[in-house]
Design brief:
The chain is mainly α and about 160 residues long. It has one domain. It is about 50% helix and about 0% strand. Helix 1 packs across helix 3 (about 75-90) and helix 1 packs across helix 5.
């Protein structure tokens, strides 16, 4: 008997959106955490710098998504906050399903929920990546979500 549990909702779209947003939040924080080890302009001691230097990181042209550990549960909580704030911030309480329908209509093709979550999370963090880099514009208001390397425990970055 398979004892694997699935944690999610009854909506594949919602689960995929949250997966994309959570991963974006965590990978961004992970990259900052690792890179902070390269700096001497912080309170890290030599042991902490060396620990961070040994964490997985991409080479030139590589992708941090391939190197960050498993997304921790509190990244999904942040993704849930983004989901809720999008619904509260957009006119008429337009939730994420309505926003995705607008994206689909603007592009003329089905909105990929994981990509939608990832790109809206990056916009919410103010990282200069936008859904509209590769997609047609539609009306949407993006909340600000504060995520930093301090948003997650050291253990999350080490994959523990």
């Amino acid at each position: 008997m398979n004892m694997t549990q699935h944690i999610g909702s009854d909506s594949d779209f919602r689960d995929s959106f949250l997966e994309g947003a959570a991963r974006a939040f965590f990978v961004t924080a992970y990259a900052d955490y690792v890179e902070e080890g390269n700096s001497t302009d912080n309170d890290l001691d030599e042991v902490e710098r060396n620990e961070r230097a040994n964490l997985s990181r991409p080479g030139p042209g590589g992708d941090w998504y391939d190197h960050a550990p498993t997304t921790p549960p509190n990244a999904y909580a942040l993704a849930g906050e983004l989901w809720a704030q999008l619904g509260a911030l957009n006119p008429g309480g337009a939730g994420v399903y309505t926003l995705a329908a607008r994206a689909t209509e603007a592009d003329g093709e089905e909105c990929d929920p994981e990509e939608f979550g990832r790109d809206l999370a990056m916009q919410a963090m103010g990282h200069g990546v936008s859904w509209f880099d590769d997609h047609e514009k539609f009306e949407i208001k993006i909340p600000h979500v504060d995520v930093s390397m301090c948003s997650f425990s050291d253990e999350a970055y080490k994959g523990e």
